[in-house]
Amino acid sequence: METEVGVGGNDEAKLDDMPAVEAGSPPSSPREIADPVVYKLVRVVGDGSMVPATDDEVMEVEDLLEDDKSEIHPVADTGQNVGCASNDEFPSTKTQFDDSEGQCENPEVDTEKSHTQLDTTVELEKLNAGIEETVHLFATNSNDGRIDQPESGGECSNPLDGPIENESLVSAVCTNSKPDFSKLEGEICLDNLSVRELHETFKATFGRETSVKDKQWLKRRIAMGLTNSCDISTTTFVIIDNKVVKKGKEGSAKNVEGKLAEVSVTGAVNENCGGLPIGCNNLIENPEDVSDERLRNPGAEYDCSVGDLQTEQRSAKRVRKPTKRYIEELSEVESSEYSGKLVSSVKNSGDVQSSPVSHVRPVRDTWSDGRPVVTRQDSLGGSDVQVPYVCRVRRSRPRENFMALMELQPSSMGMATKLAKEALGVRDNKIEKKVFKARSTSGWIQKPPVTESEKDKQYQKTKASELEKDAELKHMDSSGYYSDDYTGPVPTAKGGMRRKHHRPWTLSEVVKLVDGVARYGVGRWSEIKRLAFASYSYRTSVDLKDKWRNLLRASFANSPAEKGMLSSRKHVSVPIPAPILLRVRELAEIQAQVPPNLSSSKFGAYDDRNVHETRSGYL
DNA sequence: CTTAGGG
DNA sequence: CCCTAAG
Q1: Where is the composition biased (Basic and acidic residues) (predicted)?
Q2: Residue A339 lies in a domain
Q3: Listed residues A279, A298, A325: the one ending a domain
């Protein structure tokens, strides 16, 4: 449990981070500034006690603060705000708007609007849910449940001396960051404002700019910001003294009014000068924020019309790591129906039902670089263990039948194999050896494929016929043909396993290989494998190549001795008949001298028999 | 993925 | 056989 929480407290020190307070126009109410409520970072330890935040944590927060500041600065630089000195500037604001009016109603806005609105609206739906949550959290945290009782008259308990502070403090604290709060005074009819004006107002409300061009969204946001309420009519936006006045039925609006103010004030001091509860703020910030997070998504929905917003916003705002919640949400969405539009799913989550629990969780699933890590949740013994989910599949190796493997290697293999199997996705019997690559270290090795049941039966038939055919050539046992197949991992003295399985080449195989080479040419291993070795699931092209290499070597080594070697040498498991070696040599020479292209005119030096034999089917 | 080569 | 570097 290392949840970071903000704890209200009077901490002047933190003010250093808010230059806004001292410089700039004289605070209208020095007292408030002297006694602001500031968030202090602490960490709640398991037992409930709190310890000071670590440097790192503080840094993080400061980062955020800076973030915000940097965001605010541009606002100041625009010089649009003529200072927020006094509270009675509303009129001038009006005029200001009028003056700078003109291009506000550019057509693009409206065309763009439709798209934008779509998305943003959706976002809002969702966000609202979050807001509700947050509000509740706040309510419970401050325990006096004031949020829920608008007219309780318990203002005195407000550490900031009552409701009035709401405005004065805000304007005071934020004086320097220039949001023109005067604009927020008195009656505001958002409906009458142009997009540009809305932007102004937005700025004034939140102390930052927005690039959203959706009037509806702006109005809603502003309304929410000003009233600290998330329950904003979607149609009418008349705000008087921080109260939304719904057209027709005024007071009926269930706004939280100033009650939330105290909460929001705390939040305000901390970060943004807007009168928005901080949690709320984080959740419903610009859609761009959200989109930023959403960006992690491959097929993010903001790809078209809102694209510019993203980029624009991103340049201005540092990208924050998506919270775990987002990751979860996204993955959910992604896995379910995500294919570019997450509208519907978002809509769903828009219901207030979303569990508050989920978003308090620490961000653990993300590496420090913000890159989500693909893991597999294994519930082992109650604790969630995340296993890096490796899934390597053998390229085109022998068919490894895991069942057989497990049978053959009872001991350590059992468990390991099982695990591996699970991790690999059972169905694929071609398991990449690489998984076991660590054989020397891991201590266990893959099993030989030998005992393949069905597949092999099938090919054993073919094999059988071949055997007969081969039987003459070699004096091999036709019965135990496969019995010796298994040359399991050879346990080396060190306990580490050596080599996988050694499958001795049978004479028939060799013949086939030679034949194949004769037919398709040296180096066409894949072809030979495909055509001549179709029935041998093991024996990859590489194997063929290797074998050929060996044959070649042998053939040349033996040639001088000719047939004599047959018995001379050490007992080779499958002594290769001289004729074959001879063929090999011939083939080798042919192939060497005659680049693949030429047809047949260049082989005078070889006896016809061989050549013909060799080339049978070739020409 | 397929080849070639080294190990 | 394994592993890898190269097309």
Answers
A1: 452-468
A2: no
A3: A279
Domain span holding position A18: 3-279
Secondary structure element (H or E) that encloses residue A429, with its range: none
Segment A510-541, tens digit of pLDDT:
888 888 888 888 888 888 888 888 888 878 88
State the CATH number of the domain containing residue A567: 1.10.246.220
**How far: A387 CA to B6 C1' (Å)?**
35
User: Phi-psi category of A453—alpha, beta or left, where left has phi over 0 and alpha has psi -120 to 50?
Assistant: alpha
Say how far A434 CA is from B5 C1', in Å. Answer: 20
- Structural domains of chain A, count: 2
Residue nearest to nucleotide B2 (CA to C1'): A526
Question: What is the separation of C-alpha A418 from the centre of its chain, rounded to a whole number of angstroms?
Answer: 28
Strand C footprint nucleotides (protein C-beta < 7 Å): 1-4
Q: How far apart are CA A451 and CA A406, in angstroms?
A: 11
Give the CA-to-C1' distance from A540 to C5 in angstroms. 19
- Residue whose Cα is closest to the C1' of B3: A523
Longest dimension (CA), chain A: 115
Residue type, A217: W
Tell me, yes or no, whether A22 lies in a domain: yes
Tell me if A231 is assigned to some domain.
yes
Report the C-alpha dihedral over residues A587, A592, A594, A596, rounded to 10 degrees: 90
The answer to the question of residue A49 being in a domain is yes
Tell me which of A264, A279, A294 is where a domain ends.
A279
Per-residue pLDDT for A364 more than 60? no
Among A209-213, A403-407, A466-470, top mean pLDDT goes to: A209-213
Gap from A541 CA to B2 C1', in Å?
8
Across A34-48, A53-67, A444-458, the highest mean pLDDT is recorded for A34-48
* Residues A6 and A65 sit within 8 Å (Cβ to Cβ): no
Q: Which two tokens stand for residue A214?
A: 């959706």
**A526 strand B contact, CB < 7 Å:** yes
Is the minimum distance from the CB of A548 to strand B below 7 Å? no
**Under a CB-based contact definition with an 8 Å cutoff, are residues A143 and A289 in contact?**
no
- Whether A104 shows a pLDDT value over 80: the answer reads no
pLDDT average, residue stretch A199-211: 72
Of the ranges A16-25, A131-140, A153-162, A181-190, the best mean pLDDT one: A181-190
